[in-house]
Amino acid sequence: MNKLFCFLFFLFFNSFYSQTKLLSWNLENFGKSKSDQEIAFIANIVKNYDIITIQEVVAGNGGVQAVARLADELNRKGAKWDYCISDPTSSSTYKTERYAFLWKTSNLKLKGKPWLERNYHVEIDREPYFATFEIKGKTITIASFHAITKSKQPETEIKYFKLLPQEYPNLNLVFAGDFNCPQSNSVFTPLKEMGFAPILKNQKTSLKIKCKGPNCLASEYDNVFYKTSSINYLKSDVILFYEKFISLKEARKISDHIPIWFEFSLN
């Protein structure tokens, strides 16, 4: 009787609280330089998540193909995946790139056409890439972003993010990516005052050139900001993929950032 009760409770709980796992990863120079072996390694890292957002997809030759290669590899893992890739960002003063989303089609449905941010593409060098997904009748819009480097003061771009909830008042926004800036920086205060919260605090996410003892992480750059009133936080963490390599030099052929993830349900 107790087993039956637990089973029924499990079905009831999951019918109302659909859990989704989002993974965000700055895959450095993600393009033709990634070997088939490296693509396979990446697929094994991300295969258990529902939505993947990638920053630093090469804008030129090989970027689009690398995303397609990753999707093809994921489709060999037992689940059906789809993907979308942005146009090159409109940066005129810095390195133009693309963004990508990949998702399990059994768990999510893409709603409408994804887009690069229109109104602040001049103020933000690599303007964020938005995609709206439907999860069991509810929607979420993820804005994937890669800020300019720390030396170029990413705060000058991030300050415009406080205007995006007003620009898209009907969207359930999530901001994910590589901000090149810690969540404790005051530039995030306006977002926090609007009810957005980071999934990680005091968590370094970029790799050092060389480990110092067990310390291989350099800076607190990558994060996800979600609206606490509409999204139920369940879990979050990072994946120390470099531990699978014999050296940090080898690991950095995959990326100079580690992936971060966020498990949530929609209220």
Shape field: globular
Number of H/I helices: 7
Strand residue content: 35-45%
Q: Sheet with the most strands?
A: 6 strands, mixed
CA gyration radius, whole angstroms:
18 Å
Which structural class do the helices and strands define?
A: alpha+beta
Distance between the termini: 31 Å
Order of helix and strand elements from N to C terminus: HEHEHEEEEEHHEHEEEEEHE
Question: Could you provide a short overview of the structure?
Answer:
This protein has 267 residues and is of the alpha+beta class.
Quick tags:
267 residues; globular; six-stranded mixed β-sheet; 36% strand
Folded structure, characterized:
Helix content is 21%, strand content 36%. It is of the alpha+beta class and 267 residues long. The strands form three sheets. It has a six-stranded mixed sheet with strand order 3-4-2-1-14-13, with helices on one face. A six-stranded mixed sheet has the order 5-6-7-8-12-9. A two-stranded antiparallel sheet has the order 10-11. The longest helix has 15 residues, at 2-16. The two termini are 31 Å apart. The model is unreliable at 9-16 (pLDDT under 50).
List the helices and strands and how they pair.
Layout lengths: L1 H15 L3 E11 L5 H11 L4 E8 L4 H12 L6 E5 L11 E8 L4 E8 L12 E7 L2 E9 L8 H4 L5 H4 L5 E6 L10 H5 L2 E3 L8 E6 L2 E3 L4 E6 L3 E8 L9 H4 L8 E7 L1
Parallel strand pairs: 1-2, 7-8
Antiparallel strand pairs: 1-14, 2-4, 3-4, 5-6, 6-7, 8-12, 9-12, 10-11, 13-14
Helix pairs in contact: 2-3
